[in-house]
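User: Hi! I have a protein structure encoded as tokens and I'd like to know what sequence might fold into it. I'm fairly new to this, so please keep things simple.
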């Protein structure tokens, strides 16, 4: 990856709908060259996906929380991970070191819906203990690393 690739990535991270023509004008390369570079970054796995990021509050999802979970037997986590992947209100799941096995990010409409989801999670046989915190506000939220 060279400096032109970094420029292309920066442009796409600001707006993935930027046209190849617009990118080529900004980085001073031909449109076919820009397209080829983007395709190479996709093929290599560097660019994982192009997506749309929605504003949760505009969809009535006003509550963001994080739950830390410890499983009874972390090595037997298939049912737990299957459950996590099916729940649309769980946005991310991270395997951790330390006192807890996983941290999940949950975005729900309100505290009642959060309570329902937490009860559902706690009822799964794999979960030994949890700790949940509610985010009062979001100071910074990025969806990708910078090159």
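Assistant: Happy to help. Inverse folding works backwards from shape to sequence: for each of the 147 positions I chose a residue that suits the local structure. Here it is:
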């Amino acid at each position: 990856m060279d400096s032109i690739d970094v420029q292309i990535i920066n442009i796409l991270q600001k707006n993935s709908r930027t046209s190849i023509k617009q990118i080529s004008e900004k980085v001073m390369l031909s449109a076919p060259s820009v397209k080829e570079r983007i395709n190479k970054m996709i093929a290599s796995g560097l660019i994982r996906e192009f997506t749309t990021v929605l504003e949760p509050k505009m969809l009535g999802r006003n509550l963001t929380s994080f739950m830390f979970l410890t499983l009874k037997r972390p090595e037997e986590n298939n049912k737990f991970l299957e459950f996590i992947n099916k729940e649309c209100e769980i946005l991310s799941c991270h395997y951790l070191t330390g006192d807890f096995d996983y941290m999940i990010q949950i975005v729900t409409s309100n505290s009642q819906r959060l309570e329902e989801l937490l009860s559902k999670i706690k009822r799964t046989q794999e979960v030994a203990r949890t700790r949940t915190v509610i985010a009062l506000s979001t100071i910074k939220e990025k969806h990708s690393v910078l090159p």
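A useful reference point when you look it over: The helical segments are 3-14, 20-27, 31-44, 78-86, 111-123. Feel free to ask if any position seems puzzling.
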